[in-house]
Amino acid sequence: MKLTLKVWRQKNNKDKGGFKTYPLDGISADMSFLEMLDVLNEDLNEKGEDPVHFDHDCREGICGMCSLYINGKPHGPKQTTTCQLHMRSFSDGDTITIEPWRATAFPVQKDLVVDRSAFDRIIQSGGYVSVNTGGVPDANEIPIPKTIADEAFDAATCIGCGACVAACKNASAMLFVSAKVSQLAMLPQGQVERKERVEKMVAQMDAEGFGACTNTGACAAECPKGISLTNIARLNREYFSAIVSSENV
Amino acid sequence: MKILFARGFERKFGEQVQYLNQTILTNKAHMSWVTKTLNSTLGRKLLMALTGLFLILFLVVHLAGNLQLLLPDGGEAFNKYAATMASNPFIKVVSIGNFAFILIHVIYSIILSRHNKKSRPVEYAVSKASTNSVWASRNMGILGTVILIFLLVHLKGFYYEVKFGSTPMVSYEGVEFKDVYAIVATAYSNILYVAFYVICMGFLSFHLSHGFASAFQTLGLNHKKYTPAIQFVGRLFSIVVPALFALIPVYMYFTIQS
What we know:
Number of strands of chain A: 7
Largest interface: A-B, 47 and 42 residues
Radius of gyration of chain A: 20 Å
CATH superfamily of the largest domain in chain A: Alpha-helical ferredoxin
Radius of gyration of chain B: 24 Å
Distance between the termini of chain A: 62 Å
Oligomer: heterodimer
CATH superfamily of the largest domain in chain B: Fumarate reductase/succinate dehydrogenase, transmembrane subunit
Number of domains of chain B: 2
Distance between the termini of chain B: 64 Å
Order of helices and strands of chain A: EEHEEEEEHHHHHHH
CATH architecture of the largest domain in chain B: Up-down Bundle
Strand content of chain A: 5-15%
CATH topology of the largest domain in chain B: 3 helical TM bundles of succinate and fumarate reductases
């Protein structure tokens, strides 16, 4: 395959940055998108140019490290992570525009690398269970209906990649926060800190400078893990009921 | 917030100024839970949803009244209805609330839009937003702005005219009534005015097509059993209500012409 890449290049978080065009040849349709970028970087290394920096880690679609806004969509044309996107999703001769996630809360560090520690700080503000859980309990000692367990698990599959923020026209983190609040709010272990958790996580989300939710549904449509919008409704519900009934004045 | 005074004043009352500023700053840190909630993105969206739903309810009442303009009685039913609306104390209270809710809806939409713009200062060079969301949901601000302009023209043309202008009188069974129907009929004999109304109802339709169901989602009301029904009613509402509103000027234009 022959491709033309338009890649966002930016020296550091203070640089203005801009697009640079790279022609690329000999790309196999079986390569993953990141492998295609590896080929580009080997070329650049040989020429003595600075390689394109991008985030990646497991390359198995489970760590949430890869990102990239490819041809106008987070993680590219398929609803998956960039590492699981293959070049067969593109055609010979295509021009592919690659941009970093765009959000105030996700500042660009270099090229396509953005700082997503805002998500870490949201988790640190309340996305955990701090009660002593003791030893391994007997199976079925804590009764949790299958439907609830499944729903909590679905929410827990969020890998925190930030595609929801990247897709949202307001750069809102509602889908991420709602998944993290939901997975604990639905299970008995999460009850102790239920109200405090949602209040603190929403406050942290706002403090990080994420936008508000307009319910466009873009986040769920682009989420590689298929986190649904019902989580956002649950977050709203959890937040409002916590606000009116918690002890935190 | 910090209070700043002229230098001379500050030199003289330095301690007091400092104390005042300290009080303000600590008060901000200890905002009441109500203020904190209303300043959060979720609280602001809650206000948008609640005022939006009230305005949806208002549309129904307003439409029910206006449909009387279509009755072939020379405006008698409509004029009597208008008189009742103008004199009923309950309606007066609701009408003040209505204006307040419109104001809140507009002010908070501006606050939220500015906040959202700040959340993404650099736009994408290439965006395929149309593949993941519908146009109306991404352009509620633009749609709302057109509706606000319509509202101002509408209030100037009818509300202000009837309330403060010189309205002709008409008498039914010896009782005098303001002939609101005549004002409406005059306005709707102008094709440009009719076209403006019909186009604006199109914008309202798109605004409602997202706003109706979105308000329920913001309130946290999402349920397997009810959400499909809410979405269906929302779609139906966003077509039927603006269409009936648009029908009135069109119908009156053609009946007046003939």
